[in-house]
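Fold this complex.
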Amino acid sequence: MSDQTLFNVAVVGATGAVGEQILRLLAERDFPIQSLKLLSSARSAGTKIPFKGQELTVEEATPESFEGVEIALFSAGGDVSRALIPHAVRHGAVCIDNTNAYRMDPETPLVVPEVNIDKISGHKGIIANPNCSTIQMVAALKPLYDRFGISRIIVSTYQAVSGAGAKAINEMLRQSREVLNGNEANPDILPVGSLPVKHQIAFNVIPQIDKFQDNGFTLEEMKMIKETKKIMGDDSIEVTATCVRVPVVYGHSESVYVELKEEFDIGEVKALLADAPGVTLVDDPENQRYPLATDAAGRNDVFVGRVRRDLSNPRALNLWIVSDNLLKGAAWNAVQIAEYIAIPQA
Amino acid sequence: MSDQTLFNVAVVGATGAVGEQILRLLAERDFPIQSLKLLSSARSAGTKIPFKGQELTVEEATPESFEGVEIALFSAGGDVSRALIPHAVRHGAVCIDNTNAYRMDPETPLVVPEVNIDKISGHKGIIANPNCSTIQMVAALKPLYDRFGISRIIVSTYQAVSGAGAKAINEMLRQSREVLNGNEANPDILPVGSLPVKHQIAFNVIPQIDKFQDNGFTLEEMKMIKETKKIMGDDSIEVTATCVRVPVVYGHSESVYVELKEEFDIGEVKALLADAPGVTLVDDPENQRYPLATDAAGRNDVFVGRVRRDLSNPRALNLWIVSDNLLKGAAWNAVQIAEYIAIPQA
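Structure:
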């Protein structure tokens, strides 16, 4: 790869849970880097982070941080993306944004490489990375959509606390210790850091991820509904979501009911899933094999199992879809997009 | 209540998690007891259990244990019920069975008092208590069924480990301590005690409850599908279930999508749920109030929230239904049935 074009790369939110995984993947994938700039809030600036044997110092992200940057990966929250991405674009960077800031912007492609990588060619400096719970679902459903069409999706999620950041992981582990010791959980972060009411997550499940909208759905549920249509490029797909936080550290699980437009052979469905890029079929009920969050943690793939024909609707299927929310759900999907930009033949 | 008829009562499985709750409820409800016989396997016989200031000794359950018994509550597993209930019936007892042994027997009423208490009059010595995850769902859906009709239910569950017995609770707590201390979880009981493959439940979710059937559904899922139709007395209701074990001690949660036969006013739906017997509506998104397993634990009611009109189907609703699986899901439903037998005016 010695004659490969090298890029000036910036990672914004380098000290966060997703930023950490992005850096690990950039090193592991030997991403063609000319220079690497680690950016964060003023509070984390000065942190030293090892990268391929060097020690890099995190700098405070400012509008001028992006001078000379060609590819910028953002995972520091929607407010940071909204404030800084226009400046990064002005400096000529292609921004891959992990936040909700630009996902539904009609000018911004919303990309899961296994589904719609062709959309990156239309970008105007920003490519949005979808919500974690959406990415794994559309990656698994894409081969079924292509073969049979999809009319309706009804999904209930079992989402890991790492989706709410490192603080939520610490809170869940701390609460678990407290409850095991017979003490109060004293919730402090979840379900939503910026909202006043807190609920125990240790040994509990919480049917709220992100804020409630006027229609009674949460923002997380609306993300799954809207982003699925945009990524699939098909507004006719009807989607219903119920998003639930569970006391798991890494790995979102999803119970998905999907109505296809045609009747299907269940063997063909399994074969399509087994062959799909980025998808691993784990489906052997006789030997009690199905995807588990603990098995998916630390792996890039989307795992699918419990594949079964619905008993009441011959065009419907039930699936169980699991993936590491920090990897395919965030860092890995972003690095995949960066590879498609940097290495056109990828 | 001094002139009340008193009954000779037996509790089979008195030392188990459900038996313990049955005894607590019989005492708390001041059930009209003439004599109380506590029965169990040979292994637990001899255990002393306090009841209303007395100390009772558990005896081994045998076919002749039921001589003179008028009401027998069984929660010692399907095999014990199949072996002993015919003898209890022969001795003239009315048996309330918490196991799966007789639920789908056409001669046996399957009863949730809020839904079909009228069915107990047809019993031939056996009344079956439905599966925990079914009971809470049908209790919540009954008022909607009566008012609008129901054509389809799609449910994904978040089921507590106590549904698999005291050993599963201990296993989940032990595994949690091990994982928090950086050790292996060493699974030993779940997902199904009698099957060879074990999976970690601490900080994980397992999409298997009970054994797999040839159609790819688990027995737990098939119970929800079949029992719902039988309890509602309506085979036309289409039901799909995905049953998942979560690391919660007490309280099953359910994400339920339900298609009604008519369009509805969402305010009327909430009013019907608020007025339904045995149901408590907890639905205030603005103040982040919705049912939680930790709040439902130790309470008899079924809690319903996250009530919202589906965005893609004007006849469909989404609900979040939570109840203590050992209480309304088992012991309380059984004691309710016993009260209807013992106290006809109840």
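The domain at 7-129+330-342 of chain B is CATH 3.40.50.720 (Rossmann fold).
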